[in-house]
Structure formats: structure tokens, C-alpha cells
Design goal:
three-stranded antiparallel sheet; nine-stranded mixed sheet; 21% strand
Length: 455
């Protein structure tokens, strides 16, 4: 077994610390979407969902009381509730368009409110939106209703409204608890206010809690991330996403507020990840894919053991619905036929919906090649393994064709991948390279500048 220093040296030789590659929450990735997909395609794909099907529904609320400098999401600031109320009215109109287009009996396997800050909605609006959704599409048996909750933007009345609406899973972004880091990234959120939000969630019988924490932040050190992880574990979340901060100020303009010289280098990022991972594993969390951790009895861990783990725009999921329908400005839907993205600008999205039409402005139609490449990439990201039997059975490959496809990967990454008759796999030492290995199965040209560091 190589020493940690030898392991790091080998990863460096393979380019881990220099590479920028997609996160592969979709394939092809969003930069490859084009205006060739529009509202008519979306309408056809919605109408093709069969009666009684289970779908996932994502609802995007792009407003925040303050704009965090680290964030690369499509959001806008507001100090009043008026824009949020007006936007919620448009969401309800979009919901009516969906209801009129979907076949009878469609139910939800997942409902997720994301943002932005969905908890900016006042309690009466939360009740109204949730009521309208469930009136149109009831929750299926075993379904989940999750909401991203900002501890700085939640109170007892809003928490009551979510609980009464049937919230089953709360999601809280932590990033890091260190005050210096929080100030530098424009996201001041103390451990105490986060713990208070968790108490509100627990007091209402909502047992499932997701949290996000970042590594690679400005001024972050192994000791600081260890302290933050230990505080996070004291809140007992059942799922933790440990994401690498992507510093892309040429794309997310607000990130220019974060000085480049405060950021850890690539080798330091790897050590930060390893410190956090080791603490989580020691506390009994299962590693899920490349950046998630879950309690062993939870849905993600069970799905991983059963080979049913999947990856989508929210990260890892145990949801097997064939269609993910995105509502709201900039939301992306995934259908068996392809991807469809709503107008990113709130004004353009609002105009289309008020005119009684869907707001799709771009997307991608899947080819047969897209489908098998997408599945190979997803299999690596979820299971660190591409099964030869699966692709011979489901995609018509021969053992010889797979061998030809796998050979360049083995040549590039050597002992960091294993190759035999059962397929291709990534052993433990090679797992930091997973996104780079997945890139070998990507059939599209890629501009590295548009993506996050490989570690």
C-alpha cells in the first residue's frame, strides 16, 4: 500500500490537481444545451408521460434576502415580500399549465423546493403553493417532500406552515461554521442559529435532515473544517453533502468579492476533503458516491447497496422516477427524450407563463449514444464501476466493444482503475480521480474553464 505522500504524488502525476471537469449531475452537461429545444418539445414530452406515472417535481424560488458571494446559483436579492408573492403566483399559473398537459393519475415520488431561498415565502403563500401542488399531483406512497431551509430566514410560523403541508425532509446549507470564513464568503450563519432551525424542524416531527458543507473555502484549514464537521455531526443530520467550492468568478460575478489569495490550493483541497471524510466515516456515516455521506439505514445507503443509486441535479438520489419536472425560472427538466430548461431570467419566464405557454428556451434531445454514455458516467459516479453484463444486456454491447472502449482508460490511469471480464472499476486509491475517469466516457468537447476543479 502506498503512503499518503506517494498516493498524492501519483494523483498529481495523473493531473488531479490541475484538471477542471464537470460534476456530472447531468449528461450531456448544461453547457451543451441548445436553443433547438423549445416549449413545443417540452409540451410533447410532458404529454408523453403515461397515466398514473410517478414523477419528481422541482420548484425553484430564485430570491434571497442577501446574495452570498460564494454562490453560483441563479438568484436575485429582495428586501420585500412583494416580488416573492408575485413570483409564487406565476408558479401557480405554471402548475395549472402542467396539470392541463399531464395525463390523469400522475403522482409525485419527490417534491423539492429549492433556490434561492424558498423559506422567504410567507406562511400563507407556502400553504397556498403546497396545497395547489398536492391538489394537482398527490404524493405517491413513500414519497418525499423536501425544502431548502435558510436558518436566517425561518421562524415558527413558516416552520408550522411547512410541517402542516407535509414536509418530510429538510435541507440546510452550512458551508462552514468558522466566523472568518463566513464573513469572507458573505454568508454569516452561526452554529447557534443553525441549531435553532434544526430544533424547530425536529420539534415538528420532521426526522430527515440533509446538510451541505463545503471544502476549499477561503481561509479554510484542516483544523477549521474538522471543527465545523464536528459541530455539524452534533446536529445529527442523516445525509451530508461535502461539496468542493468552485471558484468561477468569470461565470458567477459575485465571487470577485472573494480574494483569490485566500483560497487553498488543489493539494490543500484534497487534504480538507480527507479530513472531513475521515471524521464522517468514523462517526458511522456511509460514503455515498464521491461527495455524499448517509446513515446506514437511510434511503441513499440502501439504494447504493442495492445498485439503485442515481445522480441528478440535486446530487445523489434514490428516486427512480423516469421524469424530473422543473418549475420556475432557470429550472431544468429531465425526460426520457431529453433535457428542457426554462428561461433563466425571471422576467422572460414570467412573461411566457402569463401568456399561457411554457417557458422552455433551450435543452437537448438524447441520442442513443447519449443514453449509454450517460449511464456509464452515472455508474462510475454512483458505484465506481461499469458492469459489462449491464451494457451487454441493456445496450447491445459485445465484450470486444467494451474492451476497446475501456482500453484507453486503463492506459491513461493505470492501476487507478481495474479491468477484467466483469467490467471496469475504480478501487479506493483512484476514487479522487472519478470525475476525470468519467470524462473519458464523455463524447462532447469540453471547455475546461467552465467547470470546477477535479478535487
Amino acid at each position: 500500500m502506498n503512503s499518503p505522500m506517494e498516493q498524492e504524488s501519483q494523483l498529481a502525476r495523473l493531473g488531479l490537481f490541475d484538471a477542471r471537469v464537470p460534476r456530472y449531475t447531468s449528461y450531456p452537461t448544461a453547457p451543451h444545451f441548445t436553443a433547438d429545444v423549445g416549449a413545443e418539445d417540452y409540451q410533447r414530452w410532458i404529454e408523453a408521460i403515461p397515466p398514473g406515472a410517478r414523477i419528481s417535481l422541482y420548484m425553484h424560488v430564485p430570491f434571497c434576502r442577501r446574495l452570498c458571494w460564494f454562490c453560483a446559483c441563479r438568484t436575485q436579492g429582495t428586501q420585500s415580500d412583494a416580488p416573492v408573492r408575485a413570483y409564487a403566483d406565476v408558479l401557480l399559473q405554471e402548475l395549472e399549465l402542467l396539470k392541463a398537459s399531464l395525463a390523469p393519475g400522475v403522482r409525485l415520488s419527490r417534491l423539492h423546493w429549492g433556490g434561492g431561498t424558498p423559506t422567504l415565502m410567507p406562511p400563507d403563500m407556502m400553504r397556498r403553493v403546497a396545497g395547489a401542488v398536492f391538489d394537482a399531483f398527490p404524493l405517491a406512497e413513500g414519497a418525499e417532500f423536501s425544502v431548502e431551509i435558510d436558518p436566517n430566514e425561518i421562524d415558527e410560523p413558516r416552520m408550522d406552515a411547512l410541517a402542516e403541508a407535509g414536509l418530510t425532509r429538510a435541507s440546510i446549507g452550512v458551508q462552514d461554521f468558522d466566523p472568518e470564513i463566513q464573513k469572507t464568503i458573505g454568508r454569516e450563519q452561526s452554529f447557534e442559529i443553525t441549531a435553532q432551525a434544526v430544533r424547530m424542524i425536529r420539534d415538528r416531527g420532521i426526522a430527515s435532515l440533509n446538510t451541505d458543507i463545503l471544502y476549499g473555502l477561503p481561509h479554510q484549514t484542516p483544523q477549521k473544517i474538522a471543527d465545523s464537521i464536528q459541530k455539524l455531526m452534533a446536529l445529527s443530520p442523516d445525509r451530508i453533502a461535502l461539496y468542493g467550492y468552485a471558484h468561477v468568478p468569470w461565470m458567477a460575478k459575485r465571487q470577485v468579492m472573494i480574494p483569490d489569495d485566500t483560497l487553498p490550493d488543489a493539494q490543500a483541497r484534497l487534504r480538507l476533503f480527507e479530513v472531513a471524510r475521515d471524521l464522517l466515516v468514523a462517526d458511522g456515516y456511509d460514503e455515498i458516491g464521491i461527495d455524499h455521506f448517509a446513515r446506514p439505514g437511510g434511503g441513499l445507503a440502501v439504494a447504493q447497496r442495492a445498485g439503485l443509486l442515481r445522480r441528478n441535479f440535486q446530487g445523489y438520489t434514490d428516486d427512480l422516477a423516469q421524469a424530473l419536472v422543473g418549475m420556475g425560472a432557470s429550472s431544468i427538466s429531465r425526460f426520457p427524450q431529453g433535457y428542457a430548461q426554462n428561461a433563466p431570467a425571471t422576467g422572460a419566464y414570467t412573461k411566457a407563463i402569463r401568456e399561457g405557454r411554457f417557458s422552455t428556451t433551450r435543452g437537448h434531445v438524447f441520442t442513443a449514444e447519449d443514453n449509454w454514455r450517460a449511464r456509464m458516467i452515472e455508474a462510475l459516479m454512483c458505484d465506481f464501476r461499469i458492469s459489462a453484463d449491464e451494457f451487454i444486456r441493456d445496450h447491445g454491447f459485445t465484450a470486444a466493444t467494451l474492451a476497446t472502449l475501456f482500453a484507453p482508460v486503463k492506459a491513461e490511469f493505470g492501476e487507478m482503475v481495474e479491468l477484467d471480464d466483469s467490467g471496469l472499476s475504480i478501487p479506493e486509491p483512484g476514487r479522487p480521480l472519478t470525475r476525470m475517469i468519467a470524462r473519458m466516457f464523455d463524447g462532447y468537447e469540453m471547455e475546461a474553464k467552465g467547470h470546477s476543479p477535479a478535487i
